[in-house]
Design goal:
two-stranded antiparallel sheet; about 25% strand; Rossmann fold
């Protein structure tokens, strides 16, 4: 799989972009590259790259995250180190962009430098299993909102359709046409289809450009003892 110096993952909140960003950073590191992950997600307080800090540190991967991550303070505070990452061309960067257009606004300040170097992939993460992006038209609306907010065009699609631990090979296979239609209507390639490592043997020779991932963590929101929602990675 080809890679750029800077790889950015953006999509609807709950699409799984944070988990993909962590897995992708680990994959780059296995290629022998110096890697740093930057967390620009100021929207989702439930699962952040900082939750995988220990895993990244053990593999020698740097992490740039807001000092408010994993606290009860949810402010759009972004560390200045992100500028250094964008400008230091000796490091391969992976950026977890915030969910939807609100989070994408935070990326805008780094766009001029990214455009100048022109060595980046801006990847739109889609999850057909999420309620608000089950239809292609709904996913495309999110696509356009993010591009407009950050003024950086997407370069590819990442299919991350999943239901967490309930994901089946059939669900992933069924989502391929959905991702391909998004690609056709945007004129962009489907760069990868993500699937849990345990499903890869069932998907080989049936789905192209597979990217195996490990689920770092699952978060459940509880209210009065009843589950009211799940954040899919």
């Amino acid at each position: 799989m080809k890679y750029k110096r800077m790889t950015l993952f953006a999509g609807h909140y709950g699409s799984g972009k944070t988990n993909i960003a962590l897995n992708y950073a680990l994959w780059l590191r296995r290629q022998g590259l110096a890697v740093t992950v930057a967390d620009l997600d100021i929207v989702n307080p439930y699962f952040r790259t900082k939750d995988g800090a220990d895993i990244l540190a053990r593999q020698g991967i740097g992490l740039i995250a807001s000092p408010f991550a994993n606290s009860n303070v949810d402010l759009p505070a972004l560390p200045g180190e992100v500028y250094a990452l964008v400008e230091d061309r000796s490091i391969h960067g992976v950026i977890d962009v915030g969910g939807d257009d609100r989070g994408a606004l935070a990326l805008g300040r780094y766009v001029p430098a990214l455009r100048e170097e022109n060595d980046y992939d801006m990847l739109f993460v889609v999850n057909k299993a999420r309620p608000l992006t089950r239809r292609v038209d709904d996913a495309l609306e999110v696509f356009r909102e993010i591009e407009s907010a950050c003024a950086l065009p997407f370069t590819g699609i990442v299919n991350n359709t999943n239901l967490g631990p309930a994901t089946t090979a059939e669900l992933v296979i069924d989502s391929v046409a959905y991702a391909e239609e998004i690609g056709e209507r945007t004129g962009l390639p489907v760069k990868m289809t993500c699937a849990m490592e345990s499903l890869i043997p069932q998907l080989q020779n049936k789905v192209s450009d597979l990217f195996p991932i490990s689920v770092m963590q699952l978060y459940y929101m509880e209210k009065e003892g009843t589950s009211i929602g799940k954040i899919n990675l």
